[in-house]
Amino acid sequence: MPTKTTMPFPSLKPRRTITGISAVLLPMNDDQEIDLESWQSLLERTWKAGLTPAINMDTGYAASIDDTTRHHLLQMASDQAQGRSFVSGVFVQDRPGALFHEVEYLTRTGEIRSFGGLPIIFQSYGLCDLRGDRLVAAYDKIATATDRFLLFELGAMFAPFGRIYSLDEYKEIMSIPQCVGGKHSSLDRCQEWERLQLRDQSRPGFMVLTGNDLAIDMVWYGSDYLLGLSAFAPDYFALRDRWWSAGDVRAFQLNDLLQYLGQFAFRSPVPSYKHSAAQFLKLRGWIGSDRPLRGQPERPASDVSILRDILERLEAIVL
User: What burial class does residue 227 get, using C-beta atoms within 10 Å of its C-beta: 0-12 exposed, 13-18 middle, 19+ buried?
Assistant: First the structure.
């Protein structure tokens, strides 16, 4: 729920250039084994659309695959990138009550940077149990392993180990020089607007990356994005961004339809959006199977007809 009922309403920022980072689905075959060929194709489509791909994110089942798989995907993405930019999640598995695993965070952050990726620091129970100065000190320590990294605030509706930081904590972490941006996934416009205001006052070059798949127009108020929804259609997201930058009113029509897709795919239970993504990408002919990772929540087959209607309407906009 929104944290406030009133606040200074921010103004739209027409014609701004939007930076788009898109999570990439980790697709499966019909046997629910990882389809690496299709995954590489999705990476390439994301780059060609003009967006930066993000691997080993929630959309890539980062919390459900093992360390060996995450490392292999990082190596493959680095090889395929050929110098192009990509983001990769730093995920440290722990349990409630665990201590902050400093060494693992340092090792994995440095590893991603050594492969040419931009690390985004996933939260964990041990990290989020820290408060105030102790939390900031943990990020200060992580920063010693890299020249650049992204912060990640993850609401509990996405993962039980996530936490939305206080504004004071956010401001202090934002002041770390190596922290160049932060993905905010509270699904709350007001909290994100507060971060934009803080950014504008304290560090104008810092990227506030919306993770709000239910309000993708946050980019029109000054956010950039790192979304799971854009994994469904990086090409259409990139086109919306170009139209907005050019002052083309069709950006509104395209955004409205993409938001309809987001409201449908990210309905409760939210984690099932990954299966929705597979259903949609199969309809597009971009992957061969719409099966999710084994053991992950699924959507009903009846969703496919609705997704097909959305796809046809998206295609009609750009004809």
Answer: buried
